[in-house]
Fold Amidohydrolase 3 domain-containing protein.
Amino acid sequence: MPPDAADVIIQNAQLRTMDPQNPVAEALAIRGNRIVAVGSKTEIMAHEGPDTHVIDGKGGTLMPGFFESHLHILPGGVSLERLNLADISGAEAFEIAVRDFANRYPEAELLIAFGANYTLFGDDTRITRRHLDAAIPDRPFYMIACDFHTGWANTKALKAAGLMQGRDLGPASEVVMDAEGTATGELREAAAMDCIMAIKTAGTREMLGMSGLEPDSVTQAQREEDIAFLTAGMEYCARHGITKLINMDGNRYQLELLAEMEQRGTLSCRIEVPYRIPNNADGDPIGKAVQMTRDFATEKVSCGRVKMFMDGVFDNWTALKLEDYPDRPGYRGAPIVPPALFERLCTQADAAGLQISVHAVGNGAVRHVIDGYAAARAANGPRDSRHRIEHIDNIHPDDIPRMKEIGAVASMQPVHVPGKAGLPLEPTVTLMGRENWPWAFNWRAIHDAGVPICFATDWPISPLDPLHAINCALTRQPWSDDLPDPRLTLDECFEAYTTQGAYAAFDEDRLGSLTPGKLADMVLLEGELSSLHCDGNLQVRPVLTICDGTITYEAS
Ligand SMILES: [Zn+2]
Protein backbone atom coordinates (compact mmCIF):
# COMPACT_ATOMS: atom_id res chain seq x y z
CA MET A 1 0.00 0.00 0.00
CA PRO A 2 1.42 3.42 -0.94
CA PRO A 3 2.15 5.69 2.05
CA ASP A 4 0.13 8.45 0.45
CA ALA A 5 -2.93 6.42 -0.56
CA ALA A 6 -5.72 8.34 -2.24
CA ASP A 7 -9.09 8.89 -0.55
CA VAL A 8 -10.89 8.84 -3.88
CA ILE A 9 -9.89 7.59 -7.32
CA ILE A 10 -11.98 8.15 -10.43
CA GLN A 11 -10.93 5.83 -13.22
CA ASN A 12 -12.27 4.73 -16.59
CA ALA A 13 -13.17 8.32 -17.50
CA GLN A 14 -12.21 10.66 -20.30
CA LEU A 15 -10.55 13.53 -18.51
CA ARG A 16 -10.87 16.92 -20.10
CA THR A 17 -8.53 18.57 -17.62
CA MET A 18 -8.58 22.12 -19.10
CA ASP A 19 -4.88 22.11 -18.20
CA PRO A 20 -2.91 22.88 -21.38
CA GLN A 21 0.17 21.07 -19.96
CA ASN A 22 -1.73 17.80 -19.71
CA PRO A 23 -5.07 18.11 -21.52
CA VAL A 24 -6.27 14.49 -21.54
CA ALA A 25 -6.00 11.57 -19.10
CA GLU A 26 -7.90 8.47 -17.93
CA ALA A 27 -7.95 8.72 -14.16
CA LEU A 28 -7.47 11.03 -11.21
CA ALA A 29 -6.66 10.67 -7.51
CA ILE A 30 -7.86 12.86 -4.62
CA ARG A 31 -6.47 13.04 -1.10
CA GLY A 32 -8.26 15.25 1.39
CA ASN A 33 -9.57 18.21 -0.58
CA ARG A 34 -6.82 18.19 -3.23
CA ILE A 35 -6.12 16.53 -6.55
CA VAL A 36 -2.89 14.56 -6.05
CA ALA A 37 -2.42 12.82 -9.41
CA VAL A 38 -3.81 12.85 -12.94
CA GLY A 39 -2.74 10.24 -15.48
CA SER A 40 -3.26 6.81 -17.00
CA LYS A 41 -5.26 4.14 -15.18
CA THR A 42 -2.07 2.26 -14.29
CA GLU A 43 -0.40 5.36 -12.90
CA ILE A 44 -3.41 6.35 -10.82
CA MET A 45 -4.32 2.89 -9.49
CA ALA A 46 -0.85 2.85 -7.89
CA HIS A 47 -2.36 5.37 -5.42
CA GLU A 48 -5.03 2.90 -4.29
CA GLY A 49 -5.00 1.90 -0.62
CA PRO A 50 -7.37 -0.31 1.42
CA ASP A 51 -9.68 2.62 2.22
CA THR A 52 -9.65 4.27 -1.20
CA HIS A 53 -13.11 4.89 -2.68
CA VAL A 54 -12.67 3.89 -6.34
CA ILE A 55 -15.31 5.31 -8.68
CA ASP A 56 -15.91 3.86 -12.12
CA GLY A 57 -16.35 6.79 -14.52
CA LYS A 58 -18.01 4.43 -17.06
CA GLY A 59 -16.35 6.25 -19.94
CA GLY A 60 -17.91 9.61 -19.03
CA THR A 61 -16.22 13.00 -19.33
CA LEU A 62 -14.50 14.22 -16.16
CA MET A 63 -14.03 17.99 -16.05
CA PRO A 64 -13.24 20.73 -13.55
CA GLY A 65 -16.37 21.79 -11.67
CA PHE A 66 -18.27 24.57 -13.41
CA PHE A 67 -17.96 28.18 -12.28
CA GLU A 68 -21.30 29.96 -12.27
CA SER A 69 -19.84 33.44 -12.57
CA HIS A 70 -23.03 35.49 -12.10
CA LEU A 71 -26.04 34.30 -10.17
CA HIS A 72 -28.29 35.22 -7.25
CA ILE A 73 -28.28 32.30 -4.86
CA LEU A 74 -30.83 33.46 -2.27
CA PRO A 75 -33.47 34.59 -4.80
CA GLY A 76 -32.56 31.39 -6.69
CA GLY A 77 -33.24 29.19 -3.70
CA VAL A 78 -36.52 31.01 -3.07
CA SER A 79 -37.50 30.71 -6.75
CA LEU A 80 -37.55 26.94 -6.44
CA GLU A 81 -40.79 27.45 -4.45
CA ARG A 82 -42.42 30.04 -6.70
CA LEU A 83 -44.48 29.88 -9.85
CA ASN A 84 -42.14 29.78 -12.83
CA LEU A 85 -43.81 31.31 -15.90
CA ALA A 86 -40.87 30.81 -18.28
CA ASP A 87 -42.70 28.26 -20.40
CA ILE A 88 -46.15 29.88 -20.18
CA SER A 89 -47.59 31.96 -22.98
CA GLY A 90 -51.13 33.12 -23.74
CA ALA A 91 -53.93 34.13 -21.38
CA GLU A 92 -55.46 30.67 -21.12
CA ALA A 93 -52.27 28.86 -20.06
CA PHE A 94 -51.47 31.75 -17.72
CA GLU A 95 -54.86 31.60 -15.96
CA ILE A 96 -54.62 27.84 -15.45
CA ALA A 97 -51.09 28.08 -14.04
CA VAL A 98 -51.89 30.99 -11.71
CA ARG A 99 -55.12 29.45 -10.33
CA ASP A 100 -53.40 26.15 -9.70
CA PHE A 101 -50.53 27.93 -7.92
CA ALA A 102 -52.96 30.00 -5.80
CA ASN A 103 -54.82 26.86 -4.76
CA ARG A 104 -51.56 25.25 -3.66
CA TYR A 105 -50.68 28.24 -1.44
CA PRO A 106 -53.98 29.27 0.18
CA GLU A 107 -52.24 31.08 3.05
CA ALA A 108 -49.77 33.21 1.04
CA GLU A 109 -50.11 36.96 1.71
CA LEU A 110 -48.70 37.70 -1.74
CA LEU A 111 -48.59 35.18 -4.56
CA ILE A 112 -45.36 35.62 -6.51
CA ALA A 113 -44.47 34.36 -9.96
CA PHE A 114 -41.27 34.93 -11.92
CA GLY A 115 -39.84 34.27 -15.38
CA ALA A 116 -42.65 36.14 -17.18
CA ASN A 117 -41.92 37.13 -20.74
CA TYR A 118 -42.79 40.67 -21.81
CA THR A 119 -44.79 39.10 -24.64
CA LEU A 120 -46.73 36.73 -22.38
CA PHE A 121 -50.09 37.94 -23.74
CA GLY A 122 -48.99 38.52 -27.34
CA ASP A 123 -46.16 40.18 -29.24
CA ASP A 124 -47.75 43.63 -29.32
CA THR A 125 -49.56 43.55 -25.99
CA ARG A 126 -48.05 45.41 -23.06
CA ILE A 127 -49.00 43.66 -19.87
CA THR A 128 -51.34 45.44 -17.42
CA ARG A 129 -53.02 44.64 -14.13
CA ARG A 130 -56.18 43.71 -16.07
CA HIS A 131 -54.47 40.67 -17.57
CA LEU A 132 -53.56 39.59 -14.04
CA ASP A 133 -57.01 40.43 -12.60
CA ALA A 134 -58.59 38.13 -15.19
CA ALA A 135 -56.69 35.19 -13.66
CA ILE A 136 -56.81 36.21 -10.02
CA PRO A 137 -58.86 39.21 -8.89
CA ASP A 138 -59.35 38.38 -5.20
CA ARG A 139 -55.81 37.89 -3.82
CA PRO A 140 -52.64 40.01 -4.21
CA PHE A 141 -50.66 38.60 -7.12
CA TYR A 142 -47.34 39.82 -8.41
CA MET A 143 -45.21 38.56 -11.25
CA ILE A 144 -41.63 39.36 -12.12
CA ALA A 145 -40.24 39.60 -15.65
CA CYS A 146 -37.74 37.05 -16.91
CA ASP A 147 -34.98 39.68 -16.53
CA PHE A 148 -36.07 40.79 -13.00
CA HIS A 149 -36.14 44.43 -14.11
CA THR A 150 -39.93 44.77 -14.40
CA GLY A 151 -42.78 43.54 -12.24
CA TRP A 152 -46.55 43.50 -12.77
CA ALA A 153 -49.09 43.54 -9.96
CA ASN A 154 -52.81 42.90 -10.04
CA THR A 155 -55.24 45.53 -8.75
CA LYS A 156 -55.51 43.87 -5.34
CA ALA A 157 -51.72 44.02 -4.85
CA LEU A 158 -51.45 47.60 -6.16
CA LYS A 159 -54.14 48.71 -3.68
CA ALA A 160 -52.47 46.87 -0.81
CA ALA A 161 -49.20 48.63 -1.65
CA GLY A 162 -50.93 52.02 -2.01
CA LEU A 163 -49.72 52.42 -5.59
CA MET A 164 -52.96 52.93 -7.52
CA GLN A 165 -52.35 56.69 -7.78
CA GLY A 166 -48.63 56.18 -8.45
CA ARG A 167 -45.57 57.16 -6.45
CA ASP A 168 -42.49 59.19 -7.29
CA LEU A 169 -39.45 56.98 -6.76
CA GLY A 170 -36.69 59.04 -8.38
CA PRO A 171 -35.08 58.62 -11.78
CA ALA A 172 -34.13 54.93 -11.72
CA SER A 173 -37.60 53.44 -11.02
CA GLU A 174 -41.16 54.00 -12.22
CA VAL A 175 -44.72 53.12 -11.34
CA VAL A 176 -46.16 53.23 -14.87
CA MET A 177 -49.40 55.26 -15.09
CA ASP A 178 -52.20 55.31 -17.68
CA ALA A 179 -53.81 58.37 -19.29
CA GLU A 180 -56.42 58.53 -16.51
CA GLY A 181 -53.73 58.76 -13.82
CA THR A 182 -54.13 55.20 -12.55
CA ALA A 183 -51.33 52.65 -12.24
CA THR A 184 -51.24 50.23 -15.18
CA GLY A 185 -49.74 47.53 -12.99
CA GLU A 186 -46.28 47.74 -14.58
CA LEU A 187 -43.42 48.52 -12.20
CA ARG A 188 -39.97 49.32 -13.56
CA GLU A 189 -36.79 48.60 -11.62
CA ALA A 190 -36.06 47.81 -7.99
CA ALA A 191 -37.55 50.72 -6.03
CA ALA A 192 -40.93 50.30 -7.73
CA MET A 193 -40.84 46.51 -7.49
CA ASP A 194 -39.87 46.65 -3.80
CA CYS A 195 -43.13 48.53 -3.03
CA ILE A 196 -45.08 45.41 -3.93
CA MET A 197 -42.75 43.05 -2.09
CA ALA A 198 -43.27 45.22 1.00
CA ILE A 199 -46.86 43.92 1.22
CA LYS A 200 -45.39 40.76 2.66
CA THR A 201 -44.71 40.77 6.36
CA ALA A 202 -42.44 37.72 6.28
CA GLY A 203 -39.82 36.16 4.08
CA THR A 204 -38.84 39.09 1.88
CA ARG A 205 -35.18 39.15 2.80
CA GLU A 206 -34.00 37.47 -0.39
CA MET A 207 -34.25 40.68 -2.43
CA LEU A 208 -32.37 42.93 0.04
CA GLY A 209 -28.99 41.96 -1.40
CA MET A 210 -30.16 43.24 -4.81
CA SER A 211 -30.18 46.75 -3.31
CA GLY A 212 -27.28 46.25 -0.89
CA LEU A 213 -29.56 46.50 2.16
CA GLU A 214 -29.44 44.54 5.43
CA PRO A 215 -32.53 43.16 7.19
CA ASP A 216 -33.64 45.33 10.15
CA SER A 217 -33.93 42.52 12.63
CA VAL A 218 -33.99 38.81 12.05
CA THR A 219 -35.20 36.08 14.38
CA GLN A 220 -33.40 32.76 14.62
CA ALA A 221 -36.35 31.13 12.84
CA GLN A 222 -36.03 33.59 9.95
CA ARG A 223 -32.29 32.91 9.72
CA GLU A 224 -33.00 29.20 9.50
CA GLU A 225 -35.63 29.86 6.83
CA ASP A 226 -33.03 31.71 4.73
CA ILE A 227 -30.37 29.06 5.36
CA ALA A 228 -32.86 26.50 4.04
CA PHE A 229 -33.29 28.56 0.85
CA LEU A 230 -29.51 28.88 0.44
CA THR A 231 -29.08 25.15 1.01
CA ALA A 232 -31.74 24.28 -1.56
CA GLY A 233 -30.21 26.71 -4.06
CA MET A 234 -26.73 25.27 -3.61
CA GLU A 235 -27.91 21.69 -3.87
CA TYR A 236 -29.59 22.66 -7.13
CA CYS A 237 -26.24 24.11 -8.31
CA ALA A 238 -24.37 20.92 -7.33
CA ARG A 239 -26.88 18.86 -9.34
CA HIS A 240 -25.83 20.87 -12.37
CA GLY A 241 -22.11 20.21 -11.89
CA ILE A 242 -21.39 23.63 -10.41
CA THR A 243 -18.77 23.92 -7.68
CA LYS A 244 -18.11 27.67 -7.42
CA LEU A 245 -20.62 30.50 -7.36
CA ILE A 246 -20.01 34.20 -7.83
CA ASN A 247 -23.05 35.84 -6.33
CA MET A 248 -24.04 39.13 -7.90
CA ASP A 249 -26.20 40.64 -5.23
CA GLY A 250 -24.74 40.99 -1.80
CA ASN A 251 -24.95 42.11 1.79
CA ARG A 252 -23.29 41.13 5.05
CA TYR A 253 -26.33 39.14 6.12
CA GLN A 254 -25.88 36.54 3.37
CA LEU A 255 -22.19 36.13 4.22
CA GLU A 256 -23.08 35.54 7.86
CA LEU A 257 -25.54 32.80 6.89
CA LEU A 258 -23.00 31.20 4.53
CA ALA A 259 -20.26 31.27 7.18
CA GLU A 260 -22.70 29.53 9.53
CA MET A 261 -23.37 26.88 6.86
CA GLU A 262 -19.64 26.38 6.35
CA GLN A 263 -19.21 25.76 10.09
CA ARG A 264 -22.02 23.21 10.01
CA GLY A 265 -20.41 21.55 6.98
CA THR A 266 -23.53 22.02 4.83
CA LEU A 267 -22.14 24.14 1.97
CA SER A 268 -22.29 22.22 -1.29
CA CYS A 269 -20.49 24.89 -3.35
CA ARG A 270 -17.84 27.53 -2.81
CA ILE A 271 -19.29 31.01 -2.98
CA GLU A 272 -18.14 34.58 -3.24
CA VAL A 273 -20.58 37.32 -2.24
CA PRO A 274 -19.86 40.97 -3.10
CA TYR A 275 -21.09 44.07 -1.35
CA ARG A 276 -23.76 45.53 -3.61
CA ILE A 277 -23.22 49.29 -3.28
CA PRO A 278 -26.63 51.01 -3.01
CA ASN A 279 -27.30 53.37 -5.95
CA ASN A 280 -27.00 56.51 -3.79
CA ALA A 281 -23.73 55.16 -2.27
CA ASP A 282 -24.67 56.65 1.13
CA GLY A 283 -22.34 56.08 4.07
CA ASP A 284 -18.97 54.45 3.47
CA PRO A 285 -19.68 51.64 1.00
CA ILE A 286 -16.03 50.92 0.22
CA GLY A 287 -15.20 50.73 3.92
CA LYS A 288 -18.05 48.29 4.38
CA ALA A 289 -16.83 46.11 1.48
CA VAL A 290 -13.29 46.10 2.89
CA GLN A 291 -14.61 45.02 6.29
CA MET A 292 -16.71 42.23 4.73
CA THR A 293 -13.62 41.10 2.78
CA ARG A 294 -11.58 40.92 6.00
CA ASP A 295 -14.28 39.12 7.97
CA PHE A 296 -15.12 36.44 5.40
CA ALA A 297 -12.05 34.88 3.80
CA THR A 298 -12.11 31.09 3.91
CA GLU A 299 -11.52 28.69 1.02
CA LYS A 300 -15.30 28.39 0.59
CA VAL A 301 -16.84 31.73 1.59
CA SER A 302 -15.36 35.06 0.58
CA CYS A 303 -16.14 38.64 -0.43
CA GLY A 304 -13.44 40.80 -2.11
CA ARG A 305 -15.77 42.48 -4.57
CA VAL A 306 -18.22 45.35 -4.99
CA LYS A 307 -21.21 45.17 -7.33
CA MET A 308 -22.99 48.12 -8.92
CA PHE A 309 -25.61 48.73 -11.62
CA MET A 310 -25.12 51.18 -14.48
CA ASP A 311 -28.39 50.53 -16.32
CA GLY A 312 -31.38 48.18 -16.64
CA VAL A 313 -32.64 46.30 -19.72
CA PHE A 314 -33.87 47.12 -23.23
CA ASP A 315 -37.39 45.77 -22.79
CA ASN A 316 -38.44 48.51 -20.38
CA TRP A 317 -36.26 51.25 -21.94
CA THR A 318 -33.86 51.36 -18.98
CA ALA A 319 -30.81 50.06 -20.88
CA LEU A 320 -28.41 52.96 -21.47
CA LYS A 321 -27.64 53.44 -25.15
CA LEU A 322 -25.20 55.54 -27.15
CA GLU A 323 -27.99 56.31 -29.67
CA ASP A 324 -31.65 57.22 -29.25
CA TYR A 325 -34.19 54.43 -28.80
CA PRO A 326 -35.77 53.82 -32.22
CA ASP A 327 -39.28 54.51 -30.85
CA ARG A 328 -38.32 57.47 -28.62
CA PRO A 329 -36.35 60.19 -30.38
CA GLY A 330 -34.12 62.10 -27.98
CA TYR A 331 -34.17 59.36 -25.35
CA ARG A 332 -31.20 57.04 -24.61
CA GLY A 333 -31.80 55.97 -21.02
CA ALA A 334 -29.89 57.35 -18.03
CA PRO A 335 -26.92 56.07 -16.01
CA ILE A 336 -28.03 54.70 -12.64
CA VAL A 337 -24.81 55.97 -11.03
CA PRO A 338 -23.81 59.44 -12.28
CA PRO A 339 -20.35 59.41 -13.95
CA ALA A 340 -18.54 61.55 -11.34
CA LEU A 341 -19.81 59.43 -8.44
CA PHE A 342 -19.06 56.24 -10.36
CA GLU A 343 -15.46 57.29 -11.04
CA ARG A 344 -14.96 58.13 -7.38
CA LEU A 345 -16.37 54.77 -6.23
CA CYS A 346 -14.25 52.85 -8.77
CA THR A 347 -11.11 54.71 -7.77
CA GLN A 348 -11.71 54.06 -4.06
CA ALA A 349 -12.60 50.39 -4.58
CA ASP A 350 -9.61 49.84 -6.84
CA ALA A 351 -7.26 51.55 -4.37
CA ALA A 352 -8.60 49.21 -1.66
CA GLY A 353 -7.69 46.18 -3.78
CA LEU A 354 -11.33 45.22 -4.38
CA GLN A 355 -12.56 43.74 -7.63
CA ILE A 356 -15.45 45.61 -9.24
CA SER A 357 -18.41 44.11 -11.12
CA VAL A 358 -20.96 46.37 -12.81
CA HIS A 359 -24.18 45.47 -14.57
CA ALA A 360 -24.08 47.07 -18.05
CA VAL A 361 -26.48 45.95 -20.79
CA GLY A 362 -26.61 48.81 -23.31
CA ASN A 363 -23.56 50.08 -25.21
CA GLY A 364 -23.81 53.41 -23.37
CA ALA A 365 -23.65 51.70 -19.99
CA VAL A 366 -20.68 49.60 -21.09
CA ARG A 367 -18.85 52.78 -22.15
CA HIS A 368 -19.58 54.52 -18.81
CA VAL A 369 -18.25 51.52 -16.93
CA ILE A 370 -15.06 51.39 -18.99
CA ASP A 371 -14.61 55.13 -18.42
CA GLY A 372 -14.90 54.58 -14.66
CA TYR A 373 -12.40 51.70 -14.68
CA ALA A 374 -10.00 53.73 -16.83
CA ALA A 375 -10.28 56.65 -14.39
CA ALA A 376 -9.46 54.34 -11.48
CA ARG A 377 -6.46 52.98 -13.37
CA ALA A 378 -5.24 56.46 -14.20
CA ALA A 379 -5.56 57.56 -10.58
CA ASN A 380 -4.12 54.47 -8.88
CA GLY A 381 -1.74 53.19 -11.55
CA PRO A 382 -2.14 49.90 -13.44
CA ARG A 383 -2.53 46.70 -11.42
CA ASP A 384 -3.91 43.21 -12.01
CA SER A 385 -7.44 44.37 -11.14
CA ARG A 386 -9.64 42.19 -13.44
CA HIS A 387 -12.60 44.52 -13.01
CA ARG A 388 -15.59 42.97 -14.70
CA ILE A 389 -18.46 44.11 -16.85
CA GLU A 390 -21.57 42.02 -16.31
CA HIS A 391 -23.80 41.16 -19.33
CA ILE A 392 -22.52 43.39 -22.24
CA ASP A 393 -25.61 42.63 -24.33
CA ASN A 394 -24.34 45.36 -26.59
CA ILE A 395 -20.97 47.09 -27.00
CA HIS A 396 -19.63 49.77 -29.33
CA PRO A 397 -16.76 48.23 -31.37
CA ASP A 398 -14.39 51.03 -30.23
CA ASP A 399 -14.82 49.86 -26.64
CA ILE A 400 -13.63 46.28 -27.17
CA PRO A 401 -9.91 47.22 -27.44
CA ARG A 402 -10.43 49.55 -24.46
CA MET A 403 -11.54 46.58 -22.36
CA LYS A 404 -8.35 44.76 -23.34
CA GLU A 405 -6.23 47.82 -22.57
CA ILE A 406 -7.48 48.16 -18.99
CA GLY A 407 -7.45 44.40 -18.32
CA ALA A 408 -11.24 44.14 -17.91
CA VAL A 409 -13.13 40.83 -17.96
CA ALA A 410 -16.38 40.17 -19.85
CA SER A 411 -18.96 38.25 -17.80
CA MET A 412 -21.59 37.15 -20.33
CA GLN A 413 -24.78 35.08 -20.37
CA PRO A 414 -25.51 32.94 -23.45
CA VAL A 415 -29.03 32.39 -22.07
CA HIS A 416 -29.83 36.13 -22.30
CA VAL A 417 -29.73 36.22 -26.09
CA PRO A 418 -33.22 37.21 -27.35
CA GLY A 419 -34.73 34.22 -29.14
CA LYS A 420 -32.91 31.74 -26.85
CA ALA A 421 -33.74 30.05 -23.54
CA GLY A 422 -37.42 31.00 -23.74
CA LEU A 423 -36.77 34.72 -24.37
CA PRO A 424 -38.65 36.31 -27.26
CA LEU A 425 -36.79 38.25 -29.96
CA GLU A 426 -39.09 41.23 -29.72
CA PRO A 427 -39.26 43.90 -28.57
CA THR A 428 -35.64 43.53 -27.42
CA VAL A 429 -33.88 43.42 -30.77
CA THR A 430 -35.84 46.36 -32.17
CA LEU A 431 -35.23 48.49 -29.08
CA MET A 432 -31.53 47.58 -29.23
CA GLY A 433 -31.41 49.08 -32.73
CA ARG A 434 -30.66 47.35 -36.02
CA GLU A 435 -27.29 49.08 -36.37
CA ASN A 436 -26.14 47.47 -33.11
CA TRP A 437 -26.92 43.85 -33.98
CA PRO A 438 -23.37 43.01 -35.14
CA TRP A 439 -22.18 43.93 -31.64
CA ALA A 440 -24.91 42.15 -29.69
CA PHE A 441 -23.65 39.30 -27.47
CA ASN A 442 -20.62 39.17 -29.75
CA TRP A 443 -18.52 36.67 -27.79
CA ARG A 444 -16.23 36.03 -30.75
CA ALA A 445 -15.19 39.65 -31.26
CA ILE A 446 -14.59 40.16 -27.54
CA HIS A 447 -12.70 36.88 -27.15
CA ASP A 448 -10.53 37.46 -30.22
CA ALA A 449 -9.58 40.92 -28.97
CA GLY A 450 -7.93 39.16 -26.03
CA VAL A 451 -10.55 40.03 -23.42
CA PRO A 452 -11.17 37.11 -21.02
CA ILE A 453 -14.79 35.87 -21.11
CA CYS A 454 -16.54 33.97 -18.36
CA PHE A 455 -20.02 32.54 -18.91
CA ALA A 456 -22.93 32.44 -16.47
CA THR A 457 -26.72 32.36 -16.39
CA ASP A 458 -27.79 35.02 -13.87
CA TRP A 459 -30.00 32.35 -12.26
CA PRO A 460 -32.86 32.59 -11.32
CA ILE A 461 -33.24 35.15 -14.10
CA SER A 462 -32.43 32.40 -16.63
CA PRO A 463 -32.23 28.62 -16.26
CA LEU A 464 -29.15 27.56 -14.27
CA ASP A 465 -27.90 24.53 -16.23
CA PRO A 466 -24.40 25.31 -17.64
CA LEU A 467 -24.79 22.63 -20.33
CA HIS A 468 -28.03 24.24 -21.48
CA ALA A 469 -26.27 27.64 -21.54
CA ILE A 470 -23.41 26.19 -23.62
CA ASN A 471 -25.97 24.60 -25.92
CA CYS A 472 -27.63 28.03 -26.36
CA ALA A 473 -24.22 29.54 -27.19
CA LEU A 474 -23.36 26.82 -29.73
CA THR A 475 -26.73 26.78 -31.51
CA ARG A 476 -27.30 30.50 -31.71
CA GLN A 477 -28.65 31.66 -35.06
CA PRO A 478 -27.97 35.16 -36.44
CA TRP A 479 -30.95 37.57 -36.47
CA SER A 480 -30.24 38.33 -40.13
CA ASP A 481 -28.01 36.85 -42.81
CA ASP A 482 -25.52 39.70 -42.95
CA LEU A 483 -24.38 39.37 -39.31
CA PRO A 484 -21.04 37.88 -38.23
CA ASP A 485 -21.04 34.51 -36.46
CA PRO A 486 -20.47 35.42 -32.80
CA ARG A 487 -20.16 31.88 -31.48
CA LEU A 488 -17.28 30.35 -29.55
CA THR A 489 -16.20 26.73 -29.97
CA LEU A 490 -17.17 24.04 -27.46
CA ASP A 491 -13.67 24.17 -25.97
CA GLU A 492 -13.87 27.93 -25.61
CA CYS A 493 -17.30 27.60 -23.96
CA PHE A 494 -15.86 25.08 -21.51
CA GLU A 495 -13.00 27.51 -20.79
CA ALA A 496 -15.57 30.23 -20.11
CA TYR A 497 -17.12 27.91 -17.49
CA THR A 498 -13.85 26.66 -15.97
CA THR A 499 -10.41 28.27 -16.48
CA GLN A 500 -11.78 31.69 -17.43
CA GLY A 501 -14.31 31.58 -14.60
CA ALA A 502 -11.39 30.89 -12.28
CA TYR A 503 -9.36 33.73 -13.79
CA ALA A 504 -12.30 36.12 -13.43
CA ALA A 505 -12.41 35.27 -9.71
CA PHE A 506 -8.62 35.28 -9.05
CA ASP A 507 -8.93 31.53 -8.50
CA GLU A 508 -6.67 30.24 -11.29
CA ASP A 509 -3.95 29.01 -8.91
CA ARG A 510 -6.31 26.75 -6.96
CA LEU A 511 -9.30 26.00 -9.20
CA GLY A 512 -10.45 25.79 -12.82
CA SER A 513 -8.48 22.78 -14.09
CA LEU A 514 -7.79 19.18 -13.09
CA THR A 515 -4.18 19.73 -12.10
CA PRO A 516 -2.28 17.99 -9.28
CA GLY A 517 -2.08 20.36 -6.31
CA LYS A 518 -5.34 22.16 -7.08
CA LEU A 519 -8.48 21.82 -4.98
CA ALA A 520 -10.63 18.80 -5.84
CA ASP A 521 -13.66 20.38 -7.57
CA MET A 522 -14.98 18.40 -10.54
CA VAL A 523 -17.95 17.06 -12.45
CA LEU A 524 -18.45 13.77 -14.26
CA LEU A 525 -20.68 14.03 -17.33
CA GLU A 526 -22.52 11.13 -18.91
CA GLY A 527 -23.50 11.14 -22.58
CA GLU A 528 -22.44 12.60 -25.89
CA LEU A 529 -20.87 16.05 -25.78
CA SER A 530 -21.66 16.36 -29.49
CA SER A 531 -25.34 16.82 -28.53
CA LEU A 532 -24.34 20.24 -27.15
CA HIS A 533 -24.08 21.39 -30.78
CA CYS A 534 -27.64 20.35 -31.68
CA ASP A 535 -31.12 21.67 -31.08
CA GLY A 536 -33.42 19.34 -29.20
CA ASN A 537 -33.05 17.47 -25.93
CA LEU A 538 -29.60 17.49 -24.38
CA GLN A 539 -28.02 14.05 -24.35
CA VAL A 540 -25.45 14.92 -21.72
CA ARG A 541 -25.88 15.40 -17.96
CA PRO A 542 -23.87 15.51 -14.74
CA VAL A 543 -23.83 12.23 -12.81
CA LEU A 544 -21.32 13.12 -10.09
CA THR A 545 -20.18 16.43 -8.61
CA ILE A 546 -17.28 16.77 -6.17
CA CYS A 547 -16.52 20.00 -4.32
CA ASP A 548 -13.51 20.27 -2.00
CA GLY A 549 -12.96 16.51 -2.21
CA THR A 550 -16.53 15.74 -1.07
CA ILE A 551 -19.30 14.30 -3.23
CA THR A 552 -22.03 16.97 -3.43
CA TYR A 553 -24.22 15.27 -6.02
CA GLU A 554 -24.54 11.73 -7.28
CA ALA A 555 -27.19 10.69 -9.82
CA SER A 556 -29.32 7.84 -8.55
ZN1 LIG B 1 -27.72 39.48 -12.15
Observations:
- The first strand starts at residue 8 and ends at 11.
- The mean pLDDT is 95.
- DSSP finds 18 helices and 26 strands in the chain.
